[in-house]
Amino acid sequence: MEPEALTGRSPADGVDSAFGVTGDGPGQLTPVECYLLDALERLDAAESRAIQLEAALSHSRDIGAAIGIIMGLARLTREQAFEQLRSASMARNVKLHVLATQVVETGSLDPL
């Protein structure tokens, strides 16, 4: 398949023909523009999802470590330790991962 030369009186004409601008009216997107817009939206969504997953992974490590600390200190099962952490989080109106980080840093669930 041979590449086609872009034709037109100005660079804008050449770009318009490359993207298939037809002059059907202002504000109407060509199929190529729709495809590119969709691809950019999917890329943005994927980047947002990756950031959320990285944060969740970091939080889950802290929560797991805090549960282990509570299990060791209070001799509880994993489920009991998680329930104690969750209850303390709700009672203090602090996000679970924030409280978990405090437990990991201080070695205790007791308030400072």
From TrEMBL:
InterPro entries: ANTAR (IPR005561), CheY-like_superfamily (IPR011006), WH-like_DNA-bd_sf (IPR036388). Residues 1-24 are annotated as: Disordered. It comes from the Bacteria. Pfam families: ANTAR (PF03861). Residues 43-104 form the ANTAR domain. SUPFAM superfamilies: CheY-like (SSF52172). This is ANTAR domain-containing protein. It comes from Terrabacter terrae.
